[in-house]
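for ur thesis appendix - GH1. copy paste whatever u need, i formatted it the way the template wanted (i think)
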Amino acid sequence: MPGTLDQLPPLEMWGGLECTVNRVGDRFLDQMELNGHAHRFDDLDRFADLGITAIRYPVLWERTAPNHPDDADWSWSDRRLARLRQRGVRPIVGLVHHGSGPKGTDLLDPAFPTLLARYASAVAKRYPWVTDYTPVNEPLTTARFSALYGHWYPHRRDEGAFYRAVLTQCQGIAAAMRAIRAINPDARLIQTEDLGEVFARPALAAQAVYENERRWLSLDLLTWRVVPGHRLWDRLLAAGITEGELRHLADEPCPPDVIGINHYLTSERLLDERVERYPAWSHGNGAQTYADIEAVRVCADGPGGWARLLRAAWKRYDRPIAATEVHLGCTREEQLRWLAEVWSTAKALRAEGADVRAVTVWSLLGAFGWNRLVTEEGGDYEPGVFDLRAPHPRPTAIAHLVENLAAGKEPTHPVLAVPGWWRRPSRFHYPPVDRWGADVTPPDEPELPDGAPAILVVGPPAPLGHTFATNCAVRAIPCARLDVPASTEWRAAVLDAIASHHPWAVVLTATAGVRPEDASAVASACAAT
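the 3d part is after this line
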């Protein structure tokens, strides 16, 4: 494997479309219907214009062949894959994304792998030029939501069903790739999985060890690691998985060509038995009572984050890796900080010798209902690279950042001078602890670094200016205020303030008495700073 930066291919910017089609009861919840991409062909040009080299793109089993793998309607995917090919964007074709297949099968169905393989074969025959596939997105995460927590179909809540669902999906991935490679021997498996880490107080160390081992299970199954001596071997057998099933998968492994890591800020957890410190919704587990809390809200050390997780995946598997979902449901400036941090992290790891191939800007059109775990219609909309709260998808500041990164330019937006909220003191919701749950006093750090570029807010001493400045503070955007009377004499004061503060933007909160030539002078002064 490559070991130095000059041996690695260039770091790529990929894109991703939130395309979940999951089943709840007898209903299928379809993100592409919610975001409109199912009916908006010109999205493809919007995506390509960003400069991305590849896109995780759905040719989903549930949408394309809902009745039978041999009875597919290719009209939707024919046109769209052809357009991506014309635009030079490589599709990473997904077949199942948090789903359980069409009606008539599910993640506990012994026939699921065979049926998925038949559908995968049909896709490969239809598009023999496609080289990259993700047959099943996040198999372990999907199994947790479907068979351990009961949120999605088949709504089971037991460990045996969970392990069976993980195994079934991994069998399906292996079978699908065999079927695809029978047609295209050069096809690559880009296998995605959500990855986090669990920290705990000493009383809960065993639970943390178990969860930190379990997080690798789907990738371990695909890379012939689950054999006698694996930490979960006995637990799998006790849950009803047979030794023959595990040995068969180990004897015919399907190692990913690229391991795709998906990570969100809430994926790192702290387990604490002192439940009185935390809200009731965080309490759980059948054997021990403890609170399961977002580590970013309580751990003084801060999140291990992408660097720790990508490095761990690289060391464990020694295979090319990529960040395959980079999305933060938050304000625009925090979204910019999140993407810029991941890109910087990928570059730093490559400098260490890790074979990091790409960073994927996820949720190009945003996402719907994840605040309710996509269990019902509705829920919050989180905008992404494009914001759908406009007559047409509107490119956001993230789009400009993606364009720059894809073109090899360094990010320069002024808000990037301030670290993301996950690295600022205001992130704490609970008494701070270290990663072993011991109480600590976090370092006394300022919320905003000195010298960060500021916005200049100009206007009379009125509520509007105060509100604007307050909102800037909440969003960690440095802001300087200049209160001036509503008169034509304000011009000199504003120009002096611009020369003093060098703002990257000026906001006028009142325009009464502002002459066009004065506003033009302010604009010229801003451009000169």
